[in-house]
Amino acid sequence: MNFHAIRAIYKFEMSRTRRTLLQSIVSPVLSTSLYFVVFGSAIGSRITDIDGVTYGAFIVPGLIMLSTLTTSISNASFAIYFPKFTGTIYELLSAPVSYFEIVVSYVGAAATKSLILGLLILGTAHFFVPLKIAHPVWMLTFLVLTAVTFSLFGFMIGIWADGFEKLQMVPLLIVTPLTFLGGSFYSIHMLPPFWQKVTLFNPVVYLISAFRWSFFERADVNVGISLAMTFGFLLLCMAALRWIFKTGYRLKA
Amino acid sequence: MLSVSNLSKVYASGFQALKRVNLEIRRGEIFALLGPNGAGKTTLIGIVCGVVTATEGRVVVDGHDNVRDYRAARAKIGLVPQELTTDAFESVWNAVSFSRGLFGKPPNPAHIETILKQLSLWDKKDNKIMTLSGGMKRRLLIAKALSHEPEILFLDEPTAGVDVELRRDMWELVRSLRDKGVTIILTTHYIEEAEEMADRIGVISRGEIILVEDKREIIRKLGRKQLTLHLQGKVDRLPESLAGYRLEIAPGGAELVYTYDSQSESGGIPALLRDLHEAGIEFKDLNTDQSSLEEIFVSLVREKR
Questions:
Q1: Are residues A95 and B51, on separate chains, in Cβ contact within 8 Å?
Q2: CATH no. for B2-219
Q3: pLDDT of residue B2
Q4: What does the domain layout of chain B look like in residue ranges?
Q5: Which of A110, A132, A149, B290 is most buried, by the most CB atoms less than 10 A from its CB?
């Protein structure tokens, strides 16, 4: 194991976050606060409780997931896309590091950032609505799992992308709709029966449902199934990345 | 130190950049790889360093296969790429420290300080890379490549777009590295550079190594010598007695040019001079020319086409 390399990449990535603090941390926190003001306090006060939880509190797990998901993807995809774009990737490819070490350090850094962000949003939410977390350990577990899984996913997008447009495309056209339709702002039981079935094809439903369960002990989908689906997606990303590195896809000529 | 055998590369576009290349680099030498644009120099370096995958063939770095045993192989190599690819926002110090870590070496500020001082980058250590000039960025790339104390250093066109003074400094640096036992492989467009620096020279053209030889040996073997005689009068044709020599009358008739092969050191010059005297051709001055590496190179590459 080349621990010095893991440390170097991780440190490098974290210092990039510090340099872009405003963009990486402050702006998502600000936009989430706006969600709370609009949906939590202003409109939320006119919406009846869902499963015995006030609407303002109900959307907290969904909002945290929304930010964690999107920032995991954008952090990790940018981290590997940018060296490809500037050409500095030559150094990574010529270094005595294994693919595993590359993934661990880049994905580790991206997941750390989105984890910090998720917790910051949780803290922010606390200002707006009274919150009680029923299963803090599970809450953290799901948050870490999500951050890691979607950082892996983002890392793949970063490798696949050959232009800034593609880098934006997947998060914008696929992930954001999936998250909004994944029950961030509603319980899937509120949907008509047909759409309740369709929505089960959306992987984000499982993440949000389980995460919300860790707060309020209420879930749209069985927690065990959620956990299995999350792990399934994690393994899928790992397998895809393994293939990418084995073939040198989009990395090596 | 480095052994390349049967190395071929066909890019996805179908372009064959390397055709079964074989090359042996000796420990501690400065090897210059010369070739026109698109000859395969950068591809060859890319494969050795792990940036490009070979289609077939094998690379062994100091006994380590660069695919199976890539860790040991790559740890020995430092690469200075042709393009000035740097992170814009990182500081010089951080960028060089990052490279050292990436290559698996524990932090060593003293070593990095030495390198930065050697490359006149010390007073820029806290500057962001984007504020550096082109020549400084080039030196930064060299500093990054040297940060992990490599045993082999690849310099891909190290002096492209570098001013004369800096080029001299760089040659000086390369020599001092060689004196410390680092093996150096450089590619260059400037034949003058290879002539100045290299111990051995390889010529690559269209993906094939067409020649590998000691520098002096190349010049000796392939170089031609010319003797030019500035005559006292003019001649319009050569007497019969001189027909046996490769003599030409220069346009105007005031000079005679004698071409001889440098391997026979004297090239029969005394005999020629005697015969000239007997034929009544007198000269007032003479000079000899030896073809430079550049001329040899151009004729080699042209012959191949």
A1: no
A2: 3.40.50.300
A3: 95
A4: 2-219, 224-291
A5: A110
